[in-house]
Amino acid sequence: MAMQKLTPDLTAFAAAVESELVFAQVLIRRQGTGFELRHVDDRTTAPEQLKVVAENEVRPLAQFTAGGAFRPLKSAPNLRAGWRLLLKDDRSLGTALSQLYPGAVADCFAARVEKRPVTSYRDFTARQTGMYRITTFLDDDAAAAMTRACCHNNFCLKRRLWTVGSEPCDASMEKSVIPCLEPCAVLLEFARKAARWQQQGTDNAPTPGENAGGGKVECDFDDPQNPRRLLYLGEMTSLNAGRKKPGE
């Protein structure tokens, strides 16, 4: 695992950790010139009750949930607990965080400047080609419903700074300190599916028998039990019911 370079964004981030900092689901505690990382749910757990993980074990820790499911979105609120990581300096901290929350330190630094490099949904999808060009076809109401479903607190802890239509950014204390500066690959794929459902006339809630639980695969949006899909289709059913049909 390559050691993180000591960049201005990492230096500023490390300096901001005075005694401790909650970074999504990770609690960062300063220990002299080094740091201790653990899951925020283990804040009061005695150190000897937590498994000490090495720096080369951080990537596997971030890859899978406690149940063994793959984590396609590292900002999802399903990081497993029960561990602690001891880091000797700022560079080690940067390396560990790049595995736990890729790009988050740089994004935090970028979000602090006056002119934030934020890309709206419309600007982002306008650049798409091929199979993702369809994402531009969602109207503002549908795109906003899709965004609320995909970026819901249950699925992502990043604080969304980009907008779609009149849908506002996430409230500052609603999620975590990690900013989201533009739509991610998971949202882009979800938007593609939502546009397909709309074209096919299937953007309505599934039957009661289909919504018994969460999807087995987080980003399998074809699964009728996928929680993002259920949330979006439920919103669209209410939205479509409130829309007047031609001639009404």
Provide a short characterization of the protein structure:
This protein has 8 helices and 7 strands. The chain has 248 residues and is of the alpha/beta class.
Describe what you observe in this structure.
There is one protein chain. This protein is of the alpha/beta class and 248 residues long. It folds into 2 domains: 8-111, Gyrase A, domain 2 (2-Layer Sandwich), CATH 3.30.1360.190; 121-242, Alpha-Beta Plaits (2-Layer Sandwich). It is 33% helix and 11% strand. The protein has a 5-stranded mixed sheet. A two-stranded parallel ribbon has the order 6-7. The longest helix has 16 residues, at 185-200. The termini are far apart.
CATH architecture tag of the largest domain = 2-Layer Sandwich
Poorly predicted parts: 207-215
- Can you summarize the main beta sheet? 5 strands, mixed
For this entry, what is the oligomeric state of its chains? single chain
Q: Tell me roughly what share of residues is in helical segments.
A: 25-40%
The name CATH uses for the topology of the largest domain is Alpha-Beta Plaits
Q: How would you classify the helix and strand content by structural class? A: alpha/beta
Count of discrete structural domains: 2
Strand content: 5-15%
Mean pLDDT: 90
User: Quick one: overall form?
Assistant: globular
Whole-Å distance between the termini?
63 Å
- How big is the Rg? 20 Å
User: What are the secondary-structure elements, in order, as H or E?
Assistant: HEEEEHEHHHHEEHH
How are the strands of the biggest sheet laid out side by side? 1-2-3-5-4
CATH C-level class of the largest domain is: Alpha Beta
Count of individual helical segments = 8
Number of strands: 7
